[in-house]
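yo

u said u wanted the structure for the complex thing, so here. seqs first:
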Amino acid sequence: MAEVHILGIRHHGPGSARSVAEALAELRPELVLVEGPPELDTVLPLLADVDMVPPVAGLVYAVDEPRLASFYPLAGFSPEWVAIRWALSIGAGVRAIDLPAANTFAMRRTAATPDVAAPGAYRPDAIGILADAAGYSDPERWWEDAVEHRKGGPLDRFAAISEAIAEIRATDSRPAEHPDVVENNLREAAMRRLLRAAMREGHENIAVVCGAYHAPALVPAGFPAAAADSKVLAGLPKAKVTATWVPWTSHRLSFRSGYGAGVTAPGWYQHLFAHWMDQDRPVDVATTWLVRVAHALRREHLDASTASVVEASRLATALAAVRGRPSPGLAELDDAAQAVLCDGSPLPLAVVHRELTVGQEIGNVPESVPTLPLAADLAAVLRSLRWKPGALEEVLVLDLRKPGQLARSVLLHRLQLLGVDWGVPTETGRTTGTFKEAWTLQWDPELSVALVEASRYGTTVASAAVAAAAEQARDAQSLAGLSALLSRCLLADLPDGISAVVPALAERTALQQDVAPLLETIAPLARTCRYGNVRGVDTAGVRRILDATVVRACVGLPTACAGLDDDAAAAMRRALDAANDGLALLPDMPPGDWRQALAAVAGSDRIHGSVAGRASRLLLDAGVLDGGEVAARLSRRLSLATPAPAAAAWLDGLLSGDAALLVYDPHLLAIVDGWISAVDEEVFDDVLPLLRRTFSAFSRPERREIGEQVSRTGSSGAPTAQEGLDFAAAAPAIRTMAGYLGWEARA
Amino acid sequence: MTNAPAPADIVRAHAEDAYAAELNALAGVDDRPRPPSWRLSPWAVTTYVLGGTLPNGVEITPKYLGSQRLVEIAVASLATDRALLLLGVPGTAKTWLGEHLAAAISGSSSLVVQGTAGTPEEALRYGWNYARLLADGPSREALVPGPVMRAMEAGILVRVEELTRIPSDVQDSLITILSEKTLPVPELNTEIQARKGFNVIATANNRDKGVNDLSSALRRRFNTVVLPLPDTLDQEVDIVTARVRALGTALELPAGLAELSEIRRVVTVMRELRAGVTQDQRTTIKSPSATLSTAEAISVMTNGLSLAAHFGDGTVRAQDVAASLVGAVVKDPVQDRVVWQEYLETVVRNRPDWKDLYRACRDLEASN
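structre next:
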């Protein structure tokens, strides 16, 4: 008869990990069984790889539907990690025992409410319950106080724990049909089946490392009949699953994940475990921790003297005594650090919390682990682009006219849609060209995790990005968000994504009452119509939405522009500009409605000057208004009866953008000049900042040109722009320009 | 240290006299290790402050209703011979907690240095009996020990109130006392060495402006505990109720506290004005310049109790608290009045069951 030792542990408990290490060294079992889906068996040996650095997570996912996935994170202080590594290091067998993920996923797929079988819900933290009963807030403290300090070897400790859990389980009053109970029965039956199989194989000495809650159920002496377990497990649905390892981070360990509740202080646990496993360090755990706190505070330029660390350590010890605990825990250390090192303020500790208490470890997996389909696809795309991610931040400027660089841009845009922010768009610098795109690139190990998360959307970068876009379109809150999404799909070259966004957009547009969001939608829609068909987007549907949007925006525009304050007017003006730019992309769009709406806005004296002035400018650029009409309006708007700030806003609306208007129309310039000369000194002070803002947007040569014109106007009283042009001297320059523009040189 | 029992007609008894029975009961059951010259073990001190039931059934009343964590830090600090600095806005029971800690640990809460802008160095060190000094020259007999020096000699706790109001140069004379636990007397070429059990509990207000901030050398010698304002309405109502009841008994006010709802209302007003938002988080309001601490809620209620007892029918009603409530809120006659008016019209008026309070406050306006 095989000897089976059940080691009931707390997941991610450093105390349990230490006990497991001691127990294994004493038992030297030939087979170690660890709680976890048996699908992990194939990849367990990879944990012995030197490049495997915890925290890492076992990822099990359904092949045909990666959305169904579970993570099993392991930190360096996890008992499972310790047990697996021990077994691999001495060549003992190691396997995972639990309900196969194949069944779990299949059941989750068929479950009416997916939450019922969500992992984590059915893994009660038994040690947490015991600690709670003993009045401890931190289960690790309780484990340390109540278990580690007990006399006797590690095996006695595990026996005692198992006994205590049996008591807890006996008081469980949940009905048998409670989903958690059903789930737990299934899992324990599966564990027993695998354990029986291992015993039948003739292993003499088996150690089982499982959550303490399951410990009493796995003692062979108390096994129910094998037939009973088989009956429970009979007829379960199955899904095809596969398993791999992915890097994990301390930060993510502190979340709830597939392995039950997350731990709140991975950094502290890491410290505890390292301290316990390092036998020849005589300094106590509290002092080393406080020294680390002091170092972290100093890095943040906060005072933390050595003398204060000594005092904090003494206070922590005294606090532990006051609270009746054998040694200081994290609560005492935090309190002591706050009272001594931080002058009672909790803020400095919050600064070091993330660094120390949570920790900043990022795991690594070796090259040899099976990759996710999505990651494999990304790797293939990167290879085809001859591109390798770098860990250091770099700025990449892409020229979108070159196919290879365009492909890179498309890839980066797709990854952004997936939430894998490898590249972040940055300023292209001093260029107005649309063919350049600048990205800040940095491959952070966390991005591997983001990639894993994104893999629930699909197995290739393109298909996953389409699914992600469709999901974002469903959840989008605002019309602006949707139209931005549309633009992103266009940039990411995702025709299918666009067809997923368009229906949502149509629905939103129909319900939208405000004109400004409608105006902002025009430009992305117009871009899609103009450039979408070369990429195989069904532009007819988009065009229908666009037409409706333009009509509705035009109808509502004059009313929407009434009664705006300065901020709202600035927003409206931006929307006008954007919409006008968008419409300019579509020459076949009849411009009548839009121009009529603009004319109504421009002609009304009651509309905010900034918007009305802009509308006049747009009409002037479109050739609907002529210079004389604009001059008349300018003169009327700048007359003395108009309040000067309103006049300045109008002028800003008219002029901002480029200075050509003023430079080449001396009549307009004269009116502006005359108005500025005529305003009162007091009013001038009010108007000056507005004017400065308008003029500072012009380039330096333009400003110089305007200045020179004004000085000439002032001295001679007559425009001099047309005098003294020497066409013969200008001919070579003109010919060169014509060549650039592709015109035939005819001189 | 009070040797003779306190006469019955004093206004306010020291903590160690008022709660002598509880302290004795605690000492009776306390078998845990005590730091040198402590009257009680740290556990017993914590129990005394936070309240509880002893194994022999004696009920200990809670003195400080607040975080157990903070009290434990305070007691542990004193046990490590580090000085304790209690920080907080006015009315967060800093002095109250300090007094009870001193009473429980040393059996005496009467050694106090009240910090003021004019506190001289003699108050922290020692003075001279000038007649003696002139007659006999400098001698131990001519020396008049201050509270700190007496505490050092007796090995007990001394309290320094409002530490940050004391001028910086005087504050700094504490540094030697705290770090080396000695008080040099250069005139006699000798020094006083503190006996075990000596320690300092200082309180300071972190709201006041224009105070003398502690030098970092001095600050380093204190463990700092920041006492917060009560977290929840219920907690604050409990504190006010307990204190008003105790004060009412001490002042022999023949009024009952049947109207608990009045306390709840006063505390709600204070908390809302303090937070700048109503309890339901729906309405933003302005905050007045006053701190509006729990202590002020207590004084408003005590005032109302006294009014009801002497001029009313013994039940505290809205009109009894209105005057002192307005007085507590409106500290700046111009700005605070606007704040209060706004609060009255936008919040108090719209609460159906607060009609009487609204009317009482409006009547007050009219009579002004």
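Confidence is low (pLDDT under 50) at residues 112-123, 256-260, 715-721 of chain A. The two ends of chain A are 107 Å apart (CA to CA).
cya
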